[in-house]
Design brief:
The chain is an alpha/beta fold. The chain contains 11 helices and 8 strands. A 4-stranded parallel sheet has the order 2-1-3-4, with helices on both faces. Strands 6-5-7-8 form a 4-stranded parallel sheet, with helices on both faces. Strand 1, helix 1 and strand 2 form a beta-alpha-beta unit.
């Protein structure tokens, strides 16, 4: 199984996600092909819609050139790719303009290249039964709250990721590792990262409220499957907004939990070698 690997711009700030994602894919026999991709286009969406769509479609076209679908660990990038393919198919004027720009670089996209997020790929394509066969050890009965990430869930008519009101894909994947899933009220709410630059105070207030809610629900960890969500939780920890809390709620990447259950050495899942 082979995919064009789209890590996303922000993953360089989350070294453990890069390490653990690549280690899990290798363990599962998934070959990651690195191409000369540009940004997904999300940062430009509010400033120049055409540029944002072109950015994603150009990446699709490059992957098509190598006859590959794309896989990404970033839900923001996943959502942007999905938006781009939707509007490319809906807006003929935009499609014509983008095709003209692609032609200048000898590129063309026929609309068939697919974008896969790590979670949807494992759940829908690789399959939970096959993944469960690969589990080497069940993890300690730690209580874990899942952070879904907005860009994959909404709008469902475009992303098609999971039920935006009652998603279960993430929990079903985590369930085979042995951890205990904690139900909490804010699992589908935004982490606050999209406004981190424009309103950092509100952004950190949102994430701290989510951390408190998960902690009150009894969680030992919050599990993320999105570069931006993980960055947001780590930023909240860095600023230490709530200095009076007696129990620190840790954040862990899904790929680190799954990788541990698959029997992958912890040094391949974390730069520090520290996990659960």
């Amino acid at each position: 199984m082979k995919f064009a690997y789209f890590p996303g711009c922000k993953i360089s700030f989350i070294e453990d996600y890069k390490l653990s994602f690549e280690a899990v894919m290798k363990n599962l026999g998934v070959q990651l092909v690195k191409l000369e991709f540009n940004c997904c286009g999300y940062p430009a969406r509010s400033k120049n819609f055409e540029v944002s769509i072109l950015s994603s479609i150009k990446n699709y076209a490059l992957a098509q050139k190598y006859d590959l679908d794309i896989i990404t660990p970033c839900k923001c990038c996943f959502g942007q790719f999905k938006h781009a393919s939707y509007w490319y198919g809906q807006n003929n004027r935009l499609k014509k303009r983008i095709n003209q720009l692609l032609a200048r670089e000898n590129l063309f996209w026929d609309g068939n290249t697919q974008i896969k997020h790590l979670l949807s790929f494992l759940h829908n394509d690789f399959g939970i039964p096959e993944l469960e066969k690969r589990i080497q050890k069940k993890l300690p009965n730690k209580k874990v709250a899942v952070q879904y990430g907005c860009h994959a869930l909404r709008p469902f008519s475009i992303t098609g990721f999971d039920n935006p009101y009652a998603p279960k894909l993430f929990e079903e994947l985590l369930g085979i590792t042995g951890v205990k899933i904690v139900e909490w009220s804010k699992k589908t709410e935004c982490c606050g990262n999209p406004i981190a630059d424009t309103n950092p105070k509100l952004s950190l207030k949102i994430i701290e409220n989510k951390r408190k809610t998960a902690r009150d629900a009894g969680a030992d960890y919050i599990c993320t499957g999105c570069t931006h969500c993980q960055m947001q939780y780590e930023m909240a920890k860095q600023y230490k907004m709530n200095k009076t809390q007696t129990k620190e709620l840790k954040t862990i990447l899904f790929t680190q939990i799954l990788g541990t259950a698959l029997g992958i050495n912890k040094n391949r899942l974390s730069a520090t070698g520290k996990l659960l």
